Amino acid sequence: MTRAAVVLAAGKGTRFKSDLAKVLHPVAGRSMLQWVLSALRPLDLDRVVVVVGHQREQVAQQAGEVGGLTVVTVEQHEQRGTGHAVRVALEAGALDGVEQILVVPGDAPLIAGAPLAELFAAQPGNACAMMSTALDDPTGYGRVIRDNTGQVLRVVEERDATPEQRAIREVNTSMYVFAAAELGTCLRGLRTDNDQGEEYLTDVVEPMAASGVVAVAAPQRSVGGVNDREQLARAGAELRAMMLSVLMRDGVTVVDPATTYIGAECVVGPDAVLLPGTHLEGTTTVDSGAVVGPNTRLVDTTVGAGAQVTYTVATSALIGPGAQVGPFTYLRPDAQLERDAKAGTFVEVKQSVIGAGSKVPHLSYIGNATIGEGSNIGAATVTVNYDGRSKHQTTIGDRVRIGSDTMLIAPIKVGDDAYTGAGSVITQDVPAGALAIERTEQRIIEGYAARRQARDDAT
Ligand code: UD1
Ligand code: CA
Q: How far, in Å, from the CA of 138 to the mean position of ligand 1?
């Protein structure tokens, strides 16, 4: 059977009070729309139609970024209801030749593939298989009305419901699989005589009831239609808890799941340890045996096996295997620490390579620099890379000893095995094996303290 999904993503999300379209709001490392589309991936659909409206370019762009799906977008110029949105997709020809149509809202980030596969399996022989669930607090959702034999009759939106209907706890999740032919007929008959004056998709259930509507029970967490920011935060917590439990099952130690934040695209290897206050974002990867945290934020950063990263903020950095970072280190884009290298306390590194086994232990700025292997950079060294107009390169060789408080005025090269004297301002290249020292000779003024005391006593 030819199968397609329609994702409803045209609405603004009034209850969000946001300039950003609701489905674009990020939660646990992806937009809501991307979570929904990711859930569709395992279903082996012939086509995915995303109905766009508000901020349609951004919505379409995000939809295109989810791999493994054939996505087409259809524009709903005016948001005249969920039924209207599906009708627009049908009338645009986006569902031609399709026999089974799955409809999912773009604001349900907690949905997973398995319950949707169940819906597909339940539909044949019926006009519609819909997913419903009983909630302790059904406020805000459409209620499922059944007859006294248990047959589904229709769905009533809360704002159109009688007090008796509002007491019903079984709600519509807004996920359905329809027989395409019947859906077309019923959508064309939709009316707008409801509280919002919209074409409700829920209103196709009643005319379909004669030819069969089955309700499939959803796992509670899949309902999660997110309509406001409070529900967004709750969905985020649930998604994070799910991702962390997958990590723990795969052999990652998460010391405190309540304070560990991990994005959907992050990867963590077995025997890695995530300490409290760890935030992994974007495409961050942590290899096996690495220890991250406490209180560390890594964005698009790679941490090699066995590395230790503590009290650190890093963006687009590459931390090699066995490397040590922190405490209180700032790694900016293209900071690259090779195997067993170190960036220590109050060290900032940007667009630089710190070679294998080289160390920058304290209070330093390393920018636009290449440091070879086995070198040591003394405390408070600065690569002076910026002349007020452009950035210049510092190149330091292997086994170099840079003395504390050295200013390396770039562009500059320090050869292998060279030294610089502490407190030097280095403006000329240092040849291999040489010592460069730049400071005035020290003077000793004998008896100074006693003479000064005598002067003070006289006045
Ligand atoms: C909908 C259901 C309700 C169900 C609930 C579950 C209807 C009428 N109601 O209500 O029964 O319990 O979901 O979460 O279907 N959208 C469009 N175009 C439109 C209108 C909406 O694309 O013209 C999109 C929205 O962007 C959103 C989705 O459809 O992603 C659902 O719309 P929303 O307004 O959130 O519906 P609910 O009031 O939550
Ligand atoms: Ca909703």
A: 15
